[in-house]
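Sequence in, structure out.
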Amino acid sequence: MFDLNNVYHLFARHPGLTIDPSFLQWLKTNGASTWKEGDLSENSERDVIVLSKDQLTAFAIRVKTDFITDQTAFTSAVDESVIAKKEFDLLTTNSKHEVMRIVLSACSIDKSQVSSVSPEVQYENGQYLKFRWVIQIQKDEELLTLSVDDGKLLEIAKVAISKKDERPTGPIVILNEWLATNEIHSPYLFKQQADSWTVGPLTIREKAFRIFSNVQRLYKYDSNITNISEFTWRDTLVRDTNGYRGICDEWAVVQISYLRSIGIESRLKFLIWTQNGQGVGHACLEFNEGGRWVHMDALWSAFDNPGRYRASGAQGLTVMDADFPSDSRSTAPAWGIPDPTGDGKLYPYGDFVINPSYPGNRRPGYSY
């Protein structure tokens, strides 16, 4: 049996893959380590690339994705069809290990400066042609993007990164934690975008659903970013530095920032459950609709539907409130990875006030 713990988000995000026999056979044989999705094209197609457990093979799938949203009933679903697919043997071209050797040697850097090593594929005229790696390197206040294709190193982009604290100057008075600016949420920097998504005389629920729908389309899942699984990244790092890429907790963080930017109270939730005998961790959020806290999860296409996880096989689900983020609350390593203060990457169970403590407790809707 393949390792479902590495692909449960994949199946939730791309249900069309759950019924593709060739992909399921590949997954059963090779397992999965990380996966990512590309940009959504004008004709609603995108590439999904899954790396095997040993990262020596990759399976690329071109899917046509239609997000079916009902603005009246506030429901969302995904309808997909597979356009093309191909397995890539990375051992005979460029393994990730070989790519890292090339990059570290050519750029005279150490491994800690590599922000991400992500797979990419070339798709033309209905078929896949090539596989390559795209590497991001952070040097001082610059983010350098390179590609390695057939052993050749090519510079794609170079972008300046500001390390200064972008929060408003002066003391921050938190009157309401669920609307607060803090070390992981910068609502004022997300307001212009949120306003453009919520034009018109809308209710709280209508505004929240529009943010949910836009994040669902615009943001991309990518678990190949360095230490993305160990930390919860600040909203500006997710949107601006990582180019709208992250995993479940980053998706939840940016949704909260969009909601707070237009005055909708929202809060982060960490979930734990068991699936196929394996422990699974996840993050979602809730927003306040006139005194009622409403579940929201763009990655899982679930709006006001906390039972979505149980319906997909989650068992023994427990919930934790993750409040008052502070990068200096804990400097202990996160699963063996150093957690310096001030980098905008927070240790989920150390830099938040977790209530109740891990693994949380059972909650109505989520657990039963």
